[in-house]
Every structure is written in C-alpha cells, then in structure tokens.
Specification:
This protein is about 30% helix and about 20% strand. With about 375 residues, it is of the alpha+beta class. The longest helix is centred in the C-terminal third of the chain and has 22 residues, at about 270-290. The mean pLDDT is about 95. Keywords: Acyltransferase, Transferase.
Amino acid sequence: MRLHQAGDRVVISGLGLWTPDHVVTNTELVQALNAYADKHNDMHQAAIESGHVKAVMKSDPDFIEKASGIKQRHVYIKEGILDVDHMRPLIPERGDEELSHQAEIALHAARSAMTSANKKAEDIDAVIVSCAYTQRAYPAIAIEVQDALGIDGFGFDMLVACSAATFALHRAWEMVKSGSARAVLVINPELVSPQVNYCDRDSHFIFGDVATAVIIERAETADSEHSFEILGTQAKTLYSNNIRSNFGYMSRAYGGDPFAADKLFHQEGRSVFKEVCPMAAEHLSQHLALHDLTPADVRRWWLHQANINMNQLISKKLLGRLPDADEAPIVLDRYANTASAGSVIALSLYHQDLKPGDIGVLCSFGAGYSIGSLLLKKQ
C-alpha cells in the first residue's frame, strides 16, 4: 500500500457528465402505459371484475408534470420501453470478455472528469463506482473501469441508493485527507431504466439514465479551471421500507417471479415526501451550523433531483421562501430522477459562474432513508 502526503485542503477539481442520446417524453410514456392498460384490462376483464386481478390504471402527461416536475428523461436504450409487448428496455446481453454496459457509460463520464481536472491515469490512485444498482455482484464495475482507464491502484463499488454519489464523495475525501490516495475518481453510472416498472402509473415516469463523475484531490495538486474546497461532509441514515427494490440473488431461491412488481423499484410516495423533507432540511441546517454558517450564507444549492415539490418544500424550510433557479437549479425536468446522480448533474451544469469564496451545498437523499451532504467553497 502506498502512503501519500495527507491533504489539509481537499478539493473537487473535475466534473464529468454523460447524457444518453435517447429521450422518452411524458406523452410517449403515457401512450404506452395506456395502451398496455387497455390490453391487460381487456385480457383479464373477468378476473378484474371478480377481484382476483388488479386493473392497470391509466395516466396522463399533465398528472406526471404536476406531481413531479418531470417533462422527459434520457434512457440508455429506448427500444422496448414503449412496446406494449415488452414494457422494458431491450438491452442486448454482452459476453464476459466484452465491456459491460455500465462500465461503458461510466467511462464516458470518467474521461470527461479527468479532462476537466487535467488528470491522467497515472495521477489517480482509486476508483469508486457508486450508484443505486450495479449490473452484477462481481467483479466490481469499478475495477473494470480502473482496468479500462489504465489506473494502477484500487477500485470498489458502493450501493447507497439515491445517496450513493455523496456517500462515495465522503469516502474519497477521507482517502485524500488521510493520504491513502493522491486523487480519487468517483463515478455514478446510473443505469436505472431496467429496474423501472413501466406498467405502474405511480412510478413509470420517475427515473432516467445518466452517468456522472467527480475527481477529488489535494488543493496543492489541483490545476483545473474550476475547483471547490470540501469544507466538510455530513451523513445520516434511518431505516425505512418506504422506498424499496427486492431484486437480488435470493430471487432464484424464492421460486416466484424474479421480476414481479415488488422486485422492481416501488415506494410509498406520500410517506417519503412527509418524512424525508423535514429530515433533509434539519440535516442541512445542522451541517451548516457546524461551520458557523446559515442557509443565507449559501450561494448555491445543488440538491437531489427527485421531485420538484420536495425540493421546493426543503428549500422553503431552509430559506423561509422559495429559491429562484439561480440559487437552486433544477435539472429533473429534462433528466428526471437519476438516482444518486441528480445533484452532481446540477453541480456539473451550474458551477462555472460562481466566484472565489462562494459557498455551495451538494446534497442527496433517498432510500434507507439516507442523506449525504458536502459543504463546498469555490476556489
């Protein structure tokens, strides 16, 4: 194990964002769902009338936008999602010797972040892939990416649902701070569409695919155009079943349908809204207070992008008013909920105008419940 000089000041020096080419609009999703509902309900009419089968409920685009703020989403593969005979992305399986789909999108974001930070493979000691789902248990996607980039060091995967990005950045900060790594590449390849139940009115519109990446290093080695000192990190978890996905290796042993609705993403949306919003607002207030700061001192909020109504409520609790788009930029209207990557997308797209000394907060929250935040200062 190589030991390096510990860093008194640790910074985010590079950001990478990869956006899939394919877009699915709310109207397209609703047309597919409603056509599927007609087919399913006609086929099972007798069973539905007797109460043995549930009818599939229809939706409309206005409901989706009002409930979530989402207008569209990007997806890795669009084929199959809008086909009433499939209602899932048809992603071709790759052989063991081929680059995995998730590693492929991770590499796009990773290379962009390395360019942004002016870093080569030999400058990086660790790779963390952290996201809501990894496409396999092992070998780690992070090690596959490490190999593809030619990084001589170590890598590992993390799963912390929608807080995966901030929790991984915490680990990267600790590594650089302690001197166990000179620079760490954190990647969030959120390939979520395979876990979406496109037959469920309440959740079919929520997620999109994307990949983000961040470089963490000591301030004295950073030479990028834009960098942010990490003033502090804070995390909180509280067990809840209100956001859940049960798919896993145990599905084979259970003997039922490994792709049943409960094995895909599902949530109790109202409970999540009611419980997470005050939890997130309190978490952020306490984090700022640890550094003798108040919400009024924050120039920009890069918040988790799950639901526009959640973001507005949290912001109002913090500021006593609704923030404008400059203070708390929103990207979920065009990206939808991208699991852990949403706040990093916002950071990637809305950081270049900040001035030295400006304070920003990066925060994500989700299943667990889990909340992670970083307090940042523009260099």
